[in-house]
Amino acid sequence: MEIPLLNDIVIIFGLSIAVLFICHQLRLPTVVGFLLTGIFVGPYGLGLIEAIHEVEILAEIGIVLLLFTIGIEFSLERLLQIRKSVLLGGSLQVLLTFSATLFIARQFGQAFGEAVFIGFLVALSSTAIVLKLIQERAEVDSPHGRTTLGILIFQDIIVVPMILVTPLLAGATGNLGESLLVLLAKGIGIILLVIVSARWIVPRVMYQIARTRNHELFLLSVVVICFGVAWLTSKAGLSLALGAFLAGLVISASEYSHHALGNILPFRDVFTTFFFVSIGMMLDVGFLFQQPGIITLITLSVLVLKAIIAGSVTILLGFPLRTGILVGFALGQIGEFSFILSRAGVEHGLLAGNIYQLFLSVSVLSMAATPFIIPLAPRLVDIILRLPLPKRLVSGFYPVSDIEVMDRKDHLIIIGFGVNGRNVARAARVAGIPYAIIEMNPETVRSEQAKGEPIHYGDATRETTLQYAGIKDARIVVVAINDPTATRRITEVIRRLNPKLHLIVRTRYLQEMKPLYELGADDVIPEEFETSVEIFTRVLTKYLVPRDEIERLVAEVRADGYEMFRSLSKASASFSDLKLQLHDVNISTFRIPQGSTLIGKTLAQIELRRRYGVSVVAIRRDSQILSNPGADMQLQSNDVLFVLGSSEQISEAINIFSYSHEKNEGS
Question: Hey, is 630 helix, strand or coil?
């Protein structure tokens, strides 16, 4: 028996493989490849797809799974942290974009109802495309990533009242107030259900399911939670995508969220393929070629208008100009929910004939442009910020001039106050090290300043912000933000402002290490590699491997691993190559414990240089630092030796200190 949908699936995936391979060779984004596939197989292309409606249903499932995975990676706590972006930022963006579009449409002679409906369509952006691109760039936790997500969440909510209002714009009658009140009550009920489920119900249910160690049972449970909550929200009149996001939040509150995410990701990637292909299928290429100039002009106008409005709203929220520009470029396109809304407009006669095809052409072109615009945005930001703009606009409306670390010396500067930044600050506080924090989220700055943290608002890509923080007198800077592009920019600026300080940069991916070293970082810590080191350290600990052997192995792995990641072509030796090769030489400290057999011996007698290849460059005794100690310097109890050498040499030198202490205890 022939199944038409199966034929269409084979055609879509088969052609997608060929198109994506070509796009990969041409370094074009994956999303563009899927859109091109849709154009080829769609009714306005080669007409290879028959079950168009079924493909659209699969596309809806793709949106559900995409929003579900984003919800899993998020959390209720983080959602509350961006509530200002959701409520204030989202409402301002939708209202201003709608008003501007309404005004322009009226100027071009559109009837009031049609102009209002066009305003609805243009106000919405693409949650699926934008969040996919931000996820791929590891920028979901960056200030512009969180703000973009907040505005998109509001758009997903507001599309429901827009659908309810659509019949009234066409002249239909009905009790709109009653419908909105019922919808609001249902929405509040679902949100309360999500909170209760996330805190008490789902973690207990997932625990009982996880105890069975049945993979199929666990996977089905996750799928039921995803589609169950999405179904509930759709029955309440809200969008499927919003329900899927809420379902992800429910899972994120449990300790099984990462396992659930790993199970769902393959399904998400398959079904989101249908979504992007279905968007391409809507485009009438013939209509596009009939009026290419007008369609291109309107598309550019929409992109610029929405970018300016979204960027301005972000700046009004207190973020600096850089964040505003990045958010603006991310939200410039027309979204997938506009397609859903447009169908209601066609049914009620608000979009007809050429107007509908014009909307589809502009929407698809704006979506296709987004994968190019978002990666290009940081470069455009650098160009714009070179212009003579007002300082208040560049730095944001939250003052940065109140930083009080200008007179400090040898202090630590922490850029970014996420998990890594908080841990570094806690360690510095315990050790009595003076430090200052630079953070771009005004809400975080306000709350942490109230707790007494020396945290200050500012964009660390700007020289003035770093100068206020005392960059020229700082000893160490730790860059711990989630924006790869901003990290590279900050690294370059810091090294230019202070070539002598020690710069430690955190990055998520290994491929970021080489460019960061070339820009001047002294240490680059890749989370991927360090996570693997921590995993095997815990494994060896559970197998009761001696601690000194574990530490030696860790040092060797780090030395070998980082050398491998830093290795460049032997054929071209440059300064950056030399820095990468010599980076392993570092300074470590050893304490002489009470009762050690080394007490009373001189540096010449313990023969650190001859036996291990390391040199003692200083000794801290009580509160004094004895630099360049001579060979006849005698060691005392609680002396701290500053030792220079490679990671391998230092790990071997650990033996003399631990062995001398253990031997004395054994005697």
Answer: coil
